[in-house]
Every structure is written in C-alpha cells, then in structure tokens.
Design a protein that fits this description.
five-stranded antiparallel sheet; four-stranded antiparallel sheet; 2 helices
C-alpha cells in the first residue's frame, strides 16, 4: 500500500492551510486559528495506524463544538484557490469527504454515491447538489471502476 502522508504531503497540506504541524507521537497535528471569527480547529492526521483489525489512515478534527473523524482515508486533494484540503475515504461506490478550510471552516459529506461527482449537478436537488460539487474535486484521485456499479 502506498503511503499517503509523507513529509512532502504534510508540507503541502500545511502550506494550503497556512499553518504549521507538529509530530505528536503517532499523529501530525495542525492548528488553525481564525481570530477574526473566533474559530479554532485542530486537525490530526494518523498515518498507518491500527483501526480495529486493519491498518489505515485516520483524520480527526476537533472544533469548539464538534469532533469529526474519517477512518481509512484513501487520499486527499489540496486547493490553493479555495484554501482548503479535502480528505476522502472510499467504500464500494460510496465516498466520504472531510473538507478543512484555512479560515477554520470544516465540512463533512458521508456515503455520497460516486456517480454524483461527474453527473449533471443541475439535475440534483439543492440538498444533494452541494455534496457532489464539493467532492468532485477529488474525482481525479479515485481509482477507475471497471465493473458496473449497482443501485443502492
């Protein structure tokens, strides 16, 4: 399995989020503070750790009001233009994404059908459209699917 989070990846993430990171034993911790909006967010990346009986990457977010985790992160995409990093995890034809913004914002989209990423967004209801648009940035890092996908 290819290592996803090596030094160059951590440096790239830190650059886009405009923060530094520190190694904390088994994870890398990034702290984002937005004093203007009084927002504080901590991002922890646990590369290749035991998760149950398997090994994988864990992304953990702590904010003032919440704690979010993405187990078995399979990749990430940085967007300098948007100032955000999208972490993704796949399970079958479903995708979950955790998006961290340099201003301290955070969004989670879970169990999104992969077909929504490349479909016609105008045909989706507004409550579904946002997840497809947000996660479509990660479409190019997803493996090609050879077999037909089944309906849920």
């Amino acid at each position: 399995m290819k290592k996803i989070f090596v030094k160059k990846d951590l440096d790239k993430i830190a650059q886009v989020l405009e923060t530094d990171y520190k190694f904390k034993g088994n994870n890398y911790r990034f702290v984002i503070e937005n004093k203007e909006n009084n927002q504080h967010l901590s991002l922890e990346i646990y590369p290749d750790i035991p998760i149950g009986e398997q090994t994988g990457n864990l992304i953990s977010i702590y904010t003032t009001n919440s704690h979010l985790q993405l187990h078995f992160c399979t990749g990430y995409v940085v967007s300098e233009i948007l100032g955000e990093v999208t972490f993704v995890g796949e399970c079958g034809n479903r995708l979950s994404g955790l998006i961290i913004e340099k201003n301290g914002g955070c969004s989670l989209y879970a169990n999104v059908d992969n077909r929504l990423l490349s479909g016609d967004f105008t045909q989706l209801g507004p409550e579904v459209m946002l997840s497809g648009i947000a996660l479509s940035l990660a479409e190019h890092i997803l493996p090609e699917k050879d077999e037909p996908q089944t309906e849920p």
